[in-house]
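Dear support,

Our group has been running a series of protein-ligand predictions, and this particular one with NDP is the one our PI (initials K.S.) wants archived with full inputs and outputs. We had some confusion internally about which version of the output was final, so please treat the block below as the authoritative record. The input we submitted was:
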Amino acid sequence: MTANMDPGPGAGGSASPAPRRLSILGATGSIGLNTLDLVSSEPGRFEIEALTAGRNARELAELAVRFSARIAVVADPAAYAELRDRLAGTGIEVAAGSEAVAGAAARPTDIVVSAIVGFAGLAPSLAALGSTRILALANKETLVSAGPLFLGAATRAGTRILPVDSEHNAIFQVFEAENADTISEVIITASGGPFLRTPKSELAAVTREMALRHPKWSMGPKITIDSATLMNKGLELIEAYRLYPVSVDQLSILVHPQSVVHGLVRYKDGSLLAELGVPDMRTPIGYCLAWPERRPTTVKPLDLSAVGTLTFEAPDRDRFPCLPLAEAAMRRGDGAPCVLNAANEVAVEAFLADRIAFLDIARVVEATLGKIDGEGGLMEPDSLAEATELDGRARKIALACL
Ligand code: NDP
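Confirmed final output from the archive:
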């Protein structure tokens, strides 16, 4: 890991430690709800500071009451009145707007779980740095769009970044930082998504419903579509490149349909270390919530004899062009990953709205990258303002491509 290595709260492990103060950005989403499920399985271990959502005021209000949050914030100002009315008389603070989400992220805590979907997660993730000791980062778009900026700020602020993404969390567990120079390869696995065996000729006609039917993982709609196009694996390669001190050529992907092995690290002495588990995000989230300890979770233990066979194969870059696009953006560096991410967000939203076909997602991303690179506009963002400007420019071009 490139962020600092300070021991976190709980190091030294007293018998009944003080509750950890926790904020969840994106509490109403798949990662947010899994986090709250773990919180409810350990009564008294956590105190909830802030819960945030995009616009789902009803669910946010229910969660805020159930978990006694100090503040609940919706990003969409139009959802403010509903949130305020639902929480009237509870004593829970209420706020709305993206600045209020960042403000909630910046309240002092022990842990912030950053689980907003998309580029919208960058500003609150940055805002949390310095006010929290640990930032458990699910929002991969933060690292893809502005990795150097974000990790530099985390190091300066003394906030420890822990990866929630299952592959990166797996690698975190088997990556011996002190032996980094003896690591030859970092491998992330991919389930292959719902279209692993779909012929190329049929991909043009796949529907939103088909793409949303992930065979192994239950996740929010955006990452589920990214898993179907394999863009998710491309974003994760960039994420791994940001997080671990390895070269582009030391990173690879293995398709592993059983989703049991999540990540592997190969050492020059011949050892290949892996983390295995059932496909359940509560394992990596629980790891982050407990770090540096390990604590029991309610996750079903992996029964390898029931799984029986583990298979591995190379990804098909021809049928899934989003993957080579992401790999090219990683190699290109500078602002290319930020543009790739922005164009992909626009294209996925359009696909989910039935405005474009499945294979158009890659076309929109490629055209957007080509246009901005042709204009010489792929500079590495050095500030939130620069990242926001580049993201916005890419979105406009991607929208025009639709
Ligand atoms: P979901 O779509 O399920 O949830 C997204 C959350 O973000 C919701 O709380 C949503 O609120 C909130 N939100 C949406 N837009 C905004 C906005 N503009 N400003 C503030 N909040 C917003 O997503 P996931 O939980 O699946 O994914 C979250 C992140 O974690 C993504 O970056 C994803 O790539 C990453 N991740 C997810 C995994 C998973 O298993 N789900 C696995 C690994 C990584 P509302 O409900 O009101 O819309």
